[in-house]
Amino acid sequence: MTVETAKETRGFESEVNQLLHLVINSLYSNREIFLRELISNASDAADKLRFAALTDDALYEGDTELKITVDYSDKLKTVTVRDNGIGMSRDEAVEHLGTIAKSGTKEFFGSLSGDAQQDSQLIGQFGVGFYAAYIVADKVTVTSRRAGLQEDEGVRWESDGKGEFTVETVKRKKRGTEVVLHLKDDEAEFADGYRLRSIIKRYSDHIATLIEMPKEGEDTSGYESVNSATALWTRNKKDISDDEYKAFYKHIAHDFEDPTSWIHTKAEGKLEYTTVFFIPARAPFDLFDRDAKHGVKLYVQRVFIMDDADQLLPNYLRFVRGIVDSNDLPLNVSREILQHNKAIDSIRAASTKKILGAIETLAKGDEYSAFWTNFGRVLKEGVVEDAANQEQIAKLLRFVSTVSDGDEADVSIEDYIGRMRDGQESIYYLTAETLSTARNSPHLEIFREKDIEVLLLCDPVDEWVTTHLTEFDGKPLKSILHGELDLPGEQSTDDADDAGSSDPKQHEALVEKIKTALGETVKDVRSTARLTTSPACLVSDDADMSANLARILKASGQELPDSKRILEVNPTHPLVGRMDGETDERKFANWAQLLFEQALLAEGGRLDDPAAFVKRMNDMLLEMSEA
Predict the structure, then answer these.
(1) I need a surface site. Which of 50, 250, 361, 544 has the fewest CB within 10 A?
(2) Predicted structure pTM score
(3) Whether the predicted pLDDT of 364 surpasses 90
């Protein structure tokens, strides 16, 4: 007996053990989903065989009627799900059933809280698939043969879900997979025809592959269909219930929660295709994982072609789940062909419009707050990526502003414009690393005094959004961290100087003295009227990169050229007045350096030499206490 055909005992990888524990303990209240998941896997196997047989008809092995059979035995306390789909080889059985080769696995486990109810939703996002069987079974036996292999190349996989599994090569005449669930003593209720039929009707009636069960009643010989076996998207929208849409979503997304909304479209004419798109209720754990596969399912003439067809929607809509079924693509279409296909471009453009329209509808209701919390950061990427729909996307953006009651982003740009002051020409915003830093920024002082609203942008993506969204409804977006301000009713520079002193020349001399003391540390020093309670702040020239963006890029490992900032000082502040009277050049230089460093700290910046700052501050405090 060779090693390849011998019965081996192997251990699950640690992630599988962890997932099995979570599935059994967190999903117990939703036990019925085990059948939905197994039928979904069987349906996927049938879809994959149809696709593979497009180029190799011999894979059908003379049996083209694809179906899923659900059997049960109340005597043996077993439930069996079998299909005649693509099947698995020995290596594939080990890979698919003994390991989790899924992007973001570590992130997924790291996001679990230990709360069973909360974690059950995360598990649904991750997709438990086959492992859901262990909710009701204490042993699972899988027998399979991949289409195209010889009868003696079948495989049997078996495990009690407690850390190990056995695998052996066996003879199997029929292709496809059979999963036998040996039910736990307290789960024997599932070995019942009526119970299984009701679960199938509730969760899997929309499956396009025929699902059959043993006949019941007087004539109990043979099998009969228990589902409609019609692709949901081919039916008239008026004939599809909300529950059917929700069940279909859970099938394609492997999610446990209902979707927030859906869009079902049938396009006819020059280009014929059908789309069904769903907006999930919760963001998937791998939404920001660059290696994760995102996209929707592609069918051609109702034949499954591929999962995660990311060419069908722009990347910023990667949270959308659904299907596209086209009559105008070749059955052998590949990802490379999709990238250069005009039909795909048309489907993508029309689908994007439909989805954005659905999000606009959401934005009018109470559900939008939850949607924005989950998907707002991703939607913002559309401002950068999708110039054609930029204005429509901009209307959907939500921000925190200086008039917000809390930390919830609930202010639209249209709301902002509706509250603009008389004479106000610009939409003002401030970018910062955190909301706390933004709220306490000295740059806001003059805006609070004049009761002018400012948008507070604290997501890293906001820096790129503002470089592409430069105006809205004819009104420019202006950062309050850049350049000179031109506020409605703002004093001129001369008036501002006069307000602080009877001798403007004295301020000019002080500014020059600070500039000399700081030397190459700053690009320029100037007096300002934007501050009311702080002594100084840092600003950038209009053409310069923002300090926050520079921090983000440096944190990502990018090398950036040195960019000097402009120090603006408040001539009316007592500290600046104290400096004005300092005759000791060493002390004045220390005061000037402290002025710069506290301005940098106030905006969330980082000091190059914190120890020197502390020593300088201590020296100044000691000198003041001795005076």
Answers:
(1) 361
(2) 0.78
(3) yes
